[in-house]
Amino acid sequence: MEKHYLILAGLGFATIIMAWLPSFSEKMKISSPILLLLIGFGLYAVGLPLGWPDPLWDDQSLMYFSEALVIISLMGAGLKIGANYSLKAWRKPLLLVFITMPICMVSAFLLGQYFLLLSLPSSLLLAAVLAPTDPVLAAEVQLDDPLEEEEHANDIRFTLTAEAGLNDGIAYPFSYLAVLVAQAGSWAAFSFTDWLWDKLLLKVVIGVICGLFIGWLIGHLMDRIHKYAGVKTFVGFLALSLTFMTYGVTELLHGYGFLAVFFAGFSLRYYEKVDQDYKKKLHDFVQEMEHLFMVIYILLFGGSIMNGMLTLTDWKGVVFAFLFVLVVRPVAGLIGLWGVEKDFKSKLAISFFGIRGIGSIFYLSWAFVTFDYFSHKNELYAITAYIILISIVIHGFTAPSVIGHFKKRGKFEKKGSTLED
């Protein structure tokens, strides 16, 4: 029983600190995941019996946990995006998804093949799992208040929020590609046509349609129930219910649940007849659940690092991780935004903050659960861990200051344009 009480006390200590961490991190100008990681190191060092990864998680447990965390975060991302963003504003996240993301995947694949010397399926899998930017660890660079809809002031954060919501689902077909090639044993035995029409096109379209429809339907029901029965919805818990329902229904209908959850949140947020304050309540509840799951994940991630997870790859894996975070993503981002009429500093900020995290962990564990015969399994986990760690540290130290700078500049420019008007 003493071990049980120690675990409860340790988790309670970590989660209660999370209540103050956002304010502390804002004052210190570093992101809260860095502080949580240090707490994880400390709890591991004192021997808290949390069942630390040794140094890897069980694939299936990791898949289910990361799946829940990602879909909760995607619902939050969808609810953050307001109705005042023009079609022109959506051009930038779409360029990042359809130009930058493929460049990142091709670069990761080639480096995996010719630098890391991985097998073909493992190189494909590495490229796929590093495709999505993360909606969980990137909170500092995304929209934070769903009632903040000034397009100009929030342009960078909107772009990064929309990108994370979109590419977390669009990366799924490429994870399927790696698994199907591995199962087939070669390119020759792999059916590219089936993958293209089913895993890439059909499942993406079903995911988007399901998400938009379910979000609209829930908003419509809330409005009609209040109008005709006098019953008003108050509970923020609805957002969590909507998250799991949308994900489960869409997957059962052969669609991508990640895309559906993001578009359900977006669709509900866009539904004009639902009270704005209630939309904020939905977002706030999801955000608190996301923070709770994130605390647990980062604590265990810190323990896995202390337990030797980073030693599962050699110096090439470390070099690859730094190259991907500091060179591949920023350059690919600038290429994707090349024709956008925007100052270079803003485009550089958007390109630099392509944070990788929990989504990559989900796709990796999902692939290993689906097909348990990938080579270089431990090395892929270690390389992904290095990339997540680098993202937490480097982006964590830079994001608050950079985003703060653009917030101030946006307010100044908005004030200036008002005076001119």
From TrEMBL:
Q: What is its main location?
A: membrane
Q: Which residues form a coiled coil?
A: none
The record, for Gene3D superfamilies, names:
1.20.1530.20
Question: For this UniProt entry, which segments traverse the membrane?
Answer: 6-22, 34-52, 64-82, 94-116, 200-218, 253-271, 292-312, 318-340, 352-374, 380-406
What is its subcellular localisation?
Cell membrane
**Any GO BP annotation:** proton transmembrane transport
**What residue stretches are annotated with the Cation/H+ exchanger transmembrane domain?**
15-400
Q: Which Pfam families match?
A: Na_H_Exchanger
Example of a GO MF term: antiporter activity
Q: What keyword terms does UniProt attach to this protein? A: Antiport, Cell membrane, Ion transport, Membrane, Transmembrane, Transmembrane helix, Transport
Can you name this protein? Cation:proton antiporter
